[in-house]
């Protein structure tokens, strides 16, 4: 089973990397870009056909390693 985990900063958390990307885009002539927020995407394959078990496994992975839940949100999508 394939899944995607998307990790993003919570609203209100400063994102210096997003600001740097925003500035770089402007300096490259890419107009109309504002409020860039960066995140992480993990594409994961699981050795299970049980959707519920896959979601539980991925949520545990996020809570333990993939996301810093103090400042980040995560979303699990099962393909």
In brief, what are we looking at here?
The protein has 79 residues and is an alpha+beta fold.
How would you describe the overall organization of this protein?
- The chain has 79 residues and is of the alpha+beta class.
- Helices cover 35% and strands 28% of the residues.
- The protein has helices at residues 16-27, 51-66; strands spanning 2-9, 39-45, 72-78.
- The longest helix is centred in the last third of the chain and has 16 residues, at 51-66.
- The radius of gyration is 16 Å and the shape is elongated.
- It starts with a strand and ends with a strand.
What's the layout of helices and strands?
Layout lengths: L1 E8 L6 H12 L11 E7 L5 H16 L5 E7 L1
Antiparallel strand pairs: 1-2, 1-3
**Element-level helix/strand string:** EHEHE
Terminal CA distance: 7 Å
Largest sheet: 3 strands, antiparallel
Strands, total number: 3
* Radius of gyration using CA atoms only: 16 Å
Helix content: 25-40%
In the sheet with the most strands, the strands line up as 2-1-3
Strand share of the residues?
Answer: 25-35%
So how many helices? 2
